[in-house]
From TrEMBL:
Function: May play the central regulatory role in sporulation. It may be an element of the effector pathway responsible for the activation of sporulation genes in response to nutritional stress. Spo0A may act in concert with spo0H (a sigma factor) to control the expression of some genes that are critical to the sporulation process.
Name of the protein described by the UniProt record: Stage 0 sporulation protein A homolog
Organism listed in the record: Desulforamulus profundi
Gene Ontology biological process: phosphorelay signal transduction system; regulation of DNA-templated transcription
Keywords of the record: DNA-binding, Phosphoprotein, Transcription, Transcription regulation
Length: 218
């Protein structure tokens, strides 16, 4: 990945924004293009500027991060959003996943882990802390304990199902390519087809779909 990542920091605490900027300045591939103090400013900035990734706090004045995420994804669906928060409460995570976030990182995250999460998100990967992943899986298991199933995946080819299963296990595109003996470009093409067929917009939603439909054993 040689292209610079244009990143926006959205947090209502100036000291946190300054600290994040200093941490991210270590990585030459990440270019902080702006800082905003509330969700409304984040939406406006993304509307008028080139942004690849938003590092988004949840609790902000004027407009919170969840609503800002929803609006940004409606206006600019290609923008990647990573939630950065002190909260590990399930309802925040479920709402953000529903609106298409690519990562959920707690504010006590190791700086290197934060950088790697951003670089991974730029490649199309997603990240949710393992402890929170377990809660998500438990909740989806509870919600899908009945007999209702969405059969969109029946239109997937055998290869697409294999790719989807590997994605749900947390594998990156590079890892999937190695496991299935195909190129990364082929993996990306399969993922595009999978997303279209099952009606999702990103890797996180696709992984949760696979889990909900019991296409993968974790």
């Amino acid at each position: 990945m040689n292209q610079s990542i244009h990143l926006l920091i959205a947090d209502d605490h100036a000291l946190i924004r300054e600290g994040l900027r200093k941490i991210l300045s270590i990585e030459p591939r990440i270019h902080v293009v702006g800082e905003v103090a509330d969700g409304q400013q984040a939406v406006e900035f993304c509307t008028h500027n080139v942004v690849d990734i938003v590092l988004m706090d949840i609790n902000m004045p004027v407009m919170n991060g969840i609503e800002a995420c929803r609006r940004i994804k409606e206006l600019r669906p290609n923008i990647v959003i990573i939630a950065l928060t002190i909260h590990d409460q399930d309802e925040y995570l479920f709402e953000l996943i529903k609106h298409g976030i690519s990562g959920y990182v707690l504010k006590d995250v190791d700086p290197n882990q934060l950088i790697q999460t951003i670089l991974g998100a730029a490649r199309g990967d997603s990240f949710i802390p393992p402890a929170l992943t377990a809660r998500v899986l438990a909740e989806f298991s509870r919600l899908t304990s009945g007999d209702h199933h969405d059969r969109k995946h029946q239109s997937l080819t055998d290869r697409e199902i294999e790719v989807l299963r590997q994605l749900a296990r947390g594998q990156s595109n590079k890892a999937i390519a190695k496991i299935l003996y195909i190129s990364e470009k082929t993996v990306k093409n399969h993922l595009t087809n999978i997303f279209n067929k099952i009606g999702v917009e990103d890797r996180t939603q696709a992984a949760l779909y696979a889990i909900r439909e019991k296409l993968v054993d974790l």
